[in-house]
Structures are given as structure tokens and as C-alpha cells.
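User: Predict the structure for this protein chain, please.
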Amino acid sequence: MENPTANPPPENDPEKVFQQVAAEILKEAPPSIPAGIGGWLYLPLIGLGVMSFVRIDGIMKMLLSFSPANWKALTDPASPGYHWAWGPVMVSGLIAEIILLVLGIVLLVMLFRRKRVFRKLIIAYYLLDVISVVGCTVAVALISMKQFQISELLTPENCRQILNGSIWAFIWIPYFIMSKRVKNTFVND
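Assistant: Here is the predicted structure, written as C-alpha cells:
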């Protein structure tokens, strides 16, 4: 049985027949919109997974500095390595790493559940990571300086640490803001 609403194809012109058939097919085809975990989205997924293990290793190493002997060497005013800021810097660095570890794991779960809030949280994660790296690098540099000189603060090693800590944010924050795949993937409440 023929569809009474369809226009009958012109019988003499094959080009017009092709155009009409193609138009009918295109009307029924869904638009090609990237969605789902795929494409470039695999890289932040891998990054979150790898960084969770890197952060666990970093936290374990940081905990060594909290041993009684190390803690006393850095926080006892009678010690030659003493500086009043070592205690707050070490504690805040450890807290930041634990927060980033927990947030990274939460983000992995939200990524697979395609939660809408994932986009905002991963941007916050990258910004917190940059703030943590910059803060820790600057704090340690300031503590180790005999007197404040900007040239000692902006050493190649410090600049490299800050750049390495910031590169993911420079790449992925714009991606999570502008990507059509991201907007079409993270839609669940």
C-alpha cells in the first residue's frame, strides 16, 4: 500500500527522483549530535583515574613528613630548619591533596552517571588543583628564601612546577565549557 501523503516522484527526471527520496530520508534521520563518553572526553577520564593513584602516592609521601622527628625538625623553634609557616603549609597541602583525591573519585562516579553537575565540579577541580600547586610552590619558595627576592621566587623549577600543575586546567576548562559532546552527555540530574 502506498503512502497517500507522499508526493509521487516525477517519473521522467531521475535527478528529481533522487532529490525527493534523499529529502524524505533526511527528514527521518536523527541529527548527528556528539553525545556520550567518547572522543576527547576519554582523556580527562583517564586523567582522573591516573591522578587518583598519583594523589594516593603523594599523600603517602606527605604523611612521612608528619613523623615526629620530621615534624619537630620543621616546627620546633630550637631546630635549625624551623620556620613558623612550615606547620600550616604542610597541613594545608595535605588537606588540599585529600580533598582533590576525594573530589576526583566523586567526579569519576559522576562522569559514568552523566550527572549535569559534573561539568561545574570538574572545572572547580581543575581550578582547585591550580590553586593548590601555585600556593604550595610559592609557600615553599618563600619559606626557603633568606630574604624576599622575586628572582628567587620565579626560578625555572618553580615556573615549571606551576606550568605543569596548570596545563590540564588551561586545556580542559575551555573544553568543558564549550564542547557540544559535554553539553549533550552530562544531562542527568
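The longest helix spans residues 86-113.
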